[in-house]
Design goal:
single chain; alpha/beta; 12 helices; 8 strands; 18% strand
């Protein structure tokens, strides 16, 4: 585990003045919001580094990239967050060594800590995705999960991805919100939050209500979240952006329609009530329901529902110029 000594320190406790400034500065908002979330992000999104998430990450990779000769020698995760995608892909045999970058020092710190705990050879840098701080032709694979929608200039970022890839190298991005999917997911999330936080004001449900300070903190984070989520994607438009950046063999795929209709209310409800109220039975329902509806999406709905109605967009492409 290595980090650059020149990287800035995390700032997990932004002042009101910094938050106000961030409302007018998207990159400052990215740093503040993700530094704020870094230490609790894995718990918030039920991220783990065991078989459950290894299978999920590898499944996303295989779904869009198809059958590839593995492992890749060196991989980069762009906008790594806590390292969820790359670290689980490395454990799943996709890459031997890794590098992580994120605009948030807090996220890079947590990602490198996770890598150290897992015994994975990973280095990291605090970096802007539009100016990746690695030399040309460095990586065999670049990956990212739920990152492109945070980047102001997606095409410029993909040009940088292609620059640091070796000829014939591949990128795989997953977890990007579709335009239609984001509309219904946000609506479901807001409705669930309003219903839960209002119902738990009733005296006989007060022990199901998080402390007001925690709810206020979530609301402050949500205000910044509205600033950091910059894009939604039509899958065809995202393919065209990747091609314009210079990629070949570009393909987008979508997933999660029925699963998203369950997943967003479930995650919002979990954020609004005390965690000790949700035991093993709830976890079994949430995970089992998501897996069942994901199966319905894959086996049934993907054959009858237009791809732009699904919530998650995945995209892959290759840097041209590979030689035999």
């Amino acid at each position: 585990m290595t980090a650059s000594p020149q990287d800035p320190a995390p700032n997990p406790h932004a002042t009101a003045e910094e938050v106000e400034a961030a409302l007018q500065d998207t990159k400052l908002a990215q740093v503040l919001y993700h530094d704020w979330e870094a230490e609790t992000y894995d718990d918030k999104w039920s991220i783990s580094y065991d078989e459950r998430c290894i299978d999920y990450a590898r499944g996303r990779f295989d779904a869009v990239a198809g059958d590839q000769p593995l492992p890749y020698e060196r991989a980069l995760e762009l906008g790594c967050g806590t390292g969820f995608f790359l670290l689980n892909l490395m454990q799943g045999g996709v890459a031997k060594t890794g590098s992580v970058t994120d605009l948030s020092p807090g996220m890079v710190k947590v990602a490198l800590r996770n890598a150290e705990h897992l015994g994975l050879p990973v280095d990291g840098r605090v970096a802007d995705a539009e100016t990746i701080p690695y030399e040309d032709n460095t990586f065999d694979l670049v990956v990212g999960h739920a990152v492109l929608h945070h980047i102001p200039d997606v095409e410029q970022s993909l040009r940088e991805v292609l620059r640091v890839l070796k000829p014939g190298g591949r990128f795989v991005f997953a977890g990007e919100p579709s335009t239609i999917g984001n509309f219904y997911a946000r609506w479901l999330g807001r409705a669930t939050w309003a219903a839960t936080t209002n119902v738990t004001k009733l005296p006989f449900l007060s022990d199901w209500r998080r402390p007001q300070a925690e709810l206020d903190e979530s609301s402050r984070a949500a205000a910044l979240e509205a600033v950091v989520d910059l894009h939604t994607f039509d899958p065809t438009d995202l393919e065209n952006i990747a091609k314009s950046a210079g990629a070949v063999e570009v393909k987008a795929k979508t997933e999660e329609f029925a699963a998203a209709l369950l997943g967003w209310p479930v995650r919002t409800f979990e954020a609004a009530v005390p965690p000790e109220k949700l035991g093993w039975g709830w976890a079994k329902f949430a995970f089992g329901g998501f897996k069942t509806l994901s199966w319905v999406d894959e086996k049934v709905l993907q054959h009858v529902v237009p791809r732009n109605f699904f919530y998650n967009v995945m995209i892959t492409g290759v840097k041209p110029g590979a030689t035999d």
